[in-house]
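Researcher: Let's try something more involved. This one mixes different molecule types, so please make sure each is placed in the same coordinate frame as the others.
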Amino acid sequence: MTRKLHIQYPGVIFAFALALYSFALLNLAKAETFGLDALQLQHVEQGWGDPHANQSVDGHPLFLDGKRFEHGLGTHANSILRIALGGKAERFTAAVGVDDEVGKQGSVVFKVTGDGKTLWESGVLHGGDPAKAVSVALDGVQKLVLSVGDGEDGINFDHADWADAKIVMKAGKPEAVAPVREAAVVLTPKQSPKPRINGARVFGVRPGSPFLFTVPATGERPITISAKNLPAGLQLDPQSGIITGSLAEKGTYVVTLRAQNAKGTAERALKIVCGDTVALTPPMGWNSWNCFACDVTEANVRAAADAMVASGLINHGWTYINIDDCWEAGRDADGMVLSNQKFPDMKALTDYVHSKGLKIGLYSSPGPKTCAGHEGSYKHEELDARRYGEWGFDYLKYDWCSYGGIVPNPDHDGLMKPYQIMRAALDKAPRDILFSLCQYGMGNVWEWGAQVGGNCWRTTGDISDTWSSMSGLGFGQAGHEKFAGPGHWNDPDMLVVGYVGWSAKVRPTRLTPNEQYTHISLWCLLCSPLLIGCDMTKLDDFTLNLLTNDEVLDVSQDPLGHQAARIAKDGSLEIWAKDLEDGSKAVGLFNRGEDTAKATVKWSDLGVSGQQSVRDLWRQQNLGKFADQFHTEVPRHGVVLVKVTPP
Ligand code: GLA
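Model: All components are placed in one shared frame. Result:
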């Protein structure tokens, strides 16, 4: 028997409706509006400067196309603000644009994402454009992400305002949150006890220059190194694998290197090219700036060299130990540059580093002062190059800095001139000095860096250890690939893995483990110089795993010297690929988004067809043969780096 519910009295219906109405009213009354300026700004990540509530990134009132906004958030591309809403939000509204403080410069893309789905995108907005209104419903959204990208032309001048930005909540409060940090998983397999020869397979030297090349070999010690067809003038120490001497004549010499231990033998060809060009593969080493900045001492530099050997990094091809700014004192009566008391004996220091089979670099500026205000090389270029040669340096980073005061608005020739002067001076030194241009990409340096004799050139401003900074600089290299090649490389700045801190007090990098895999994979694909920026006495297992994967490093050191190009982009997913000498391709499947996603590389984008073997380079595992395409899950801010080889 079914029982029907009979409503006996109309009064009950009325009372019920009234209750519902009051409940709705109560809820409406509870809806509350929160400005972005009320959120915790320490959770904003951005590519430059600091975020400001109710002010631009430069600390001025917010202005978009002449209109003043009292409230909002001033940030800088690439930036991310993650906000937890608990599914209780109604709507997000704002007026967005490039702040008037940069005039007509800058170009950005604002994006609103809810639980991984793009809810709104501004398209590219330029400086001077009117503010664009955004109004997005947020029903049920748990995680809101407000991001600003760089409009595909680098992050310079990208001062981005979320003006008058508000979140309407039905209940509760929006909360800015830090990203979830995944566990640090070591992917690089343990090294085999059998011998393996690693690192560069081609090496450039000039005739008459001191030759120094350490054969990088892994495997159980002791290992004995030998070489067949070593040209006259060179000697090899079988215990250390250090090759020294000099070559009198220009020419190409193919040497067969051999590493032998109790477990077996490995052989590999090394092509020595004696000519005019050094850095035939991207330089690999360490630089003092991202860890110690101006607190660097000689003891730090010696310790870095010691650690390069003791940690085994030298066995993977890591070579240079570079002193950045803050070693300089004034000049003596003859105009010769002096090192400060933290570096009492430069010659003894270079001898020490060389004795370990490593090379050593230092830093100056074409201006009168370096960026940190120390003695620069202006009008002393010849003397300085001579001094660097006498001291025994192998690498010079030459940083624009105060030269901007000498030539405030340089034209093309004006940009090239100081580098031409120093290159000519360095060429007179009786040793090979790798020349690293640093002027942050001005005047499209990639188009003429090689012409002024640069072996590498910074294409960007300074890196910091955040996702916004690293990913903005690295992925911003799209299109620069045609300017790189053996002897001349694009440089999106040094590595920020391990313990960094720009002072004597170092701390672990703020990049997440997946972001660090992205960093190293991308820098290898880009043929960027690989300069470790961390305290080498604090190398942990995870950092070592990043820096000792020989299959990954082979992508960087491949003799063809082809820089990867971005071959496909689908929202936050990007595919970057480079040709390798053996006919295969190195491919990075990157996920710049906030959630795990499936990325696909199509053979048609790669310019190959039919069955291809795919190998995961970080895990050093074959994944099988695939026709037409390969797809895989890629974690947030992570990468899967593969090698695609024809059958
Ligand atoms: C500039 C460079 C940095 C570093 C400092 C030193 O900022 O871009 O890499 O060399 O100068 O002062």
